[in-house]
């Protein structure tokens, strides 16, 4: 690269960073200040690109905060509510936990093992799993866009208030919700060829009387060496929760047979 090409490239970078700062000033709020404090420049640039493209118009408060990611409530230019999930720099423990879901998944066999590459892959994995689940007729948040460590989805809830999880608010009709979840697990397995891998009362919301399955980043294809083990864990988790609510649950073997089609 010549001297002038290097100067040109650096100037373009500085101009883009300046545009980002100006955009943030135009839409200044306490939440933007928090974003600047929490996230690095590359993450802010991704958010800027989404805003510049009209995918995001406004970002408001945090609706979910964890060690691995924060979810912000936002809106697009048409006023539709968004869930903006931003993966954080992860701990060594979480990084190690990621690997068992990524390794063995042929979609990501060439991913690098550095932390940044793993985070970006994790976000891509969740986006692709959401697409597959939605196409299979499973109610999940609609995936909208993903880049690097930023994933944008449909917001499940209204006016910035998230729909409750099963853990937060047991359903009024647990029998119906239980049966629907089993149907979703079957569709996920037979149509999307995926196993959720972490299904429990913490990862199912109820909205408009229907379950919505969330947090699908760890979902694995049926070819994954852990798929069978994870499916059985999902079955046991769901049975355990609903049996406590008085639902006459099916046996794990019967559920497994129905989901897999007798495999």
Describe, in plain words, how this protein is organized in 3D:
With 263 residues, the protein is of the alpha+beta class. The chain folds into 2 domains: 3-158, 2-Layer Sandwich (Phosphorylase Kinase, domain 1); 163-260, Transferase(Phosphotransferase), domain 1. 46% of the residues lie in helices and 18% in strands. The protein is built from 8 helices and 11 strands. The chain has helices at 3-26, 30-38, 41-52, 92-102, 115-135, 174-190, 227-244, 252-260, and strands at 58-65, 69-75, 81-87, 143-147, 150-154, 157-158, 161-162, 194-195, 204-207, 210-213, 220-221. The strands form 4 sheets. The protein has a 5-stranded antiparallel β-sheet with strand order 1-2-3-5-4, with helices on both faces. A hairpin with a 5-residue loop joins strand 2 (69-75) and strand 3. Helix 1 (3-26) packs across helix 3 (41-52), helix 4 packs across helix 5 and helix 6 (174-190) packs across helix 8. The termini are far apart.
Class computed from helices, strands and strand pairing: alpha+beta
Please state the CA-atom Rg, rounded to the nearest Å.
20 Å
Count of individual beta strands: 11
Low-confidence stretches: none
Top-tier CATH class of the largest domain: Alpha Beta
Please give the order of strands in the largest beta sheet: 1-2-3-5-4
CATH topology of the largest domain: Phosphorylase Kinase, domain 1
Strand content: 15-25%
The domain count comes to: 2
Provide a count of the helices: 8
Q: Mean of the pLDDT scores?
A: 85
CATH architecture of the largest domain: 2-Layer Sandwich
Query: What letter string, H or E per element, gives the SSE order?
Result: HHHEEEHHEEEEHEEEEHH
Largest sheet: 5 strands, antiparallel
Taken from the alpha-carbon principal axes, the silhouette is: globular
């Amino acid at each position: 690269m010549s001297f002038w090409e290097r100067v040109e490239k650096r100037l373009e970078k500085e101009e883009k960073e300046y545009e980002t700062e100006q955009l943030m000033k135009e839409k200044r709020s306490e939440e933007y200040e928090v974003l600047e404090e929490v996230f690095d420049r590359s993450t802010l640039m991704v958010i800027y690109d989404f805003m510049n493209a009209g995918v995001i118009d406004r970002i408001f408060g945090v609706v979910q905060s964890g060690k691995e990611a924060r979810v912000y409530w936002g809106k697009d230019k048409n006023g539709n509510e968004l869930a903006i999930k931003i993966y954080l720099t992860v701990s060594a423990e979480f990084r190690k936990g990621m690997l068992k879901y990524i390794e063995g998944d042929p979609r990501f066999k060439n991913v690098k093992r550095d932390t940044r590459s793993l985070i970006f892959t994790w976000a891509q994995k969740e986006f692709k799993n959401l697409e597959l689940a939605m196409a299979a007729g499973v109610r999940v948040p609609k995936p909208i866009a993903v880049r690097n460590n930023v994933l944008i989805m449909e917001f499940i809830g209204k006016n910035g208030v998230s729909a409750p999880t099963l853990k937060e608010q047991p359903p009024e009709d647990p029998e119906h919700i239980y049966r629907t979840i089993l149907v979703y697990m079957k569709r996920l397995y037979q149509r999307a060829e995926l196993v959720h891998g972490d299904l429990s009362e913490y990862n199912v919301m109820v909205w408009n009387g229907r379950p919505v399955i969330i947090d699908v980043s760890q979902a694995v294809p049926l070819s994954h060496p852990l798929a069978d083990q994870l499916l059985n864990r999902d079955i046991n988790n769901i049975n355990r929760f609903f049996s406590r609510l008085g639902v006459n649950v099916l046996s794990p073997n019967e559920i497994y047979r129905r989901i897999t089609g007798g495999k």
